[in-house]
Amino acid sequence: MQNTKKLGAAIIGCGAIFPLHAQALAGLQGVELLAVVDSDPSKAEQAGREYGCMSTTDYRTIIDRDDIDVVHLCTPHHLHADMAVELLHAGKHVLTEKPLADSLDAAHRLLKAAANSTGQLGVVFQNRYNDPSVRIKQMIESGELGRLLCLKGVVTWHRDEAYYQSSNWRGYWATEGGGVLMNQTIHTLDLLQWFGGEIRSVRGSVTTDVLDGVIEVEDTAHACIDFSNEARGLFYGTNAYLVNSPVELEVVFEQGTLLQRRDCLYLWKDDQETLLCEPATKSAGAKSYWGTGHFRLIEDFYSHIRENRKFWIDGEEGLKAMKLAKDIYSSSNARS
């Protein structure tokens, strides 16, 4: 049965990703953004003025508010689990940005809280909603190109010293939980495991190629991922490039190859390349290399809440990409 009650929302964290969540909420019918929270008073006040809602520096003030049903977590990684656990204990629905937590112990604690809550836990892996991702997943499941043989994901982005100095939590194991794997490329890791299925083994390594002395964590990583279905995945990600290039994906089947380039999906078959899909809209203010899936995911999360259905990218799903990243760290003997 669909719930027609107007849903009240709050967003904790008014940093770089905040506008995507706020704009998505502004476009949803039957949803009202009632509060924004940030430990920086100026950020909270500015966001409150812009979106016409209450602002505060203390997220605990929203926990007991009966008019707030859904809380979005756009906070630093190390704050996700503790905040989400409190909110879930209070019966709130929680939509958290990636990663699920900064450590596997914190993630499992969060999953336990979600299992015992009347609220839903959702994790933002918005690239699953991008048109090429949807089409790739459909073609894997349909078997129309035969058996999946191998796949790869390549992410070459740019993060410099100024980026890390702009926030006191980035670049440290204790607060970020990792570097390029946990922050930037975790979305591509999520797609690789979503496409490939159950993982049998992981071997990889991490290095700090250009930011040594600036950050504790890695800026570059690669991995070989063997799946239970005998497919093999290769991954490369770095923050050491000088531009933010679009993510590249290649998925090879017995009877053809799918290639994602510049957010367009192509099929290479019988020595001919065919365009299968391209972005219908731009990213509505987001950095272009982030993709366009945030709005779709947020709308879908609220639809599941209204219809009392379990959201499909829940804590268990969100844990998979995080565990893959941690397995790469373990393989490389890096702190994880």
Summarize the structure.
With 336 residues, this protein is of the alpha/beta class. It is 32% helix and 26% strand.
Furnish the topology, listing elements before pairings:
Blueprint: E1 7-12, H1 18-26, E2 31-37, H2 41-51, E3 54-56, E4 70-73, H3 77-89, E5 93-97, H4 104-115, E6 121-124, H5 131-142, E7 148-156, H6 161-165, H7 173-176, H8 186-196, E8 199-207, E9 220-227, E10 232-238, E11 248-253, E12 256-261, E13 264-269, E14 272-277, H9 294-306, H10 315-331
Parallel strand pairs: 1-2, 1-4, 2-3, 4-5, 5-6, 7-10
Antiparallel strand pairs: 7-11, 8-9, 9-10, 11-12, 12-13, 13-14
Helix pairs in contact: 1-9, 3-4, 4-10, 8-10
Pfam families: GFO_IDH_MocA, GFO_IDH_MocA_C3
Organism: Paenibacillus agri
Signal peptide: 1-22
Overview of the structural elements:
This protein is an alpha/beta fold. The chain contains 10 helices and 14 strands. The termini are far apart. Residues 135-258 form the GFO/IDH/MocA-like oxidoreductase domain. This is Gfo/Idh/MocA family oxidoreductase.
User: How many structurally independent domains?
Assistant: 2
CATH architecture of the largest domain, please? 2-Layer Sandwich
CATH topology of the largest domain: Dihydrodipicolinate Reductase, domain 2
- Report Rg: 20 Å
Overall spatial form:
globular
- CATH class designation of the largest domain: Alpha Beta
Main structural class: alpha/beta
What is the chain-wise order of helices and strands? EHEHEEHEHEHEHHHEEEEEEEHH
Q: Which stretches are low in confidence, meaning pLDDT under 50 for 5 or more residues running?
A: none
Helix content: 25-40%
Trace the largest sheet across and list its strands.
Answer: 8-9-10-7-11-12-13-14
CATH superfamily of the largest domain: Dihydrodipicolinate Reductase, domain 2
Give the number of DSSP strands: 14
Amino- and carboxy-terminal Cα gap: 43 Å
Strand content: 25-35%
Average of per-residue pLDDT values:
95
Number of helices: 10
Largest sheet: 8 strands, mixed
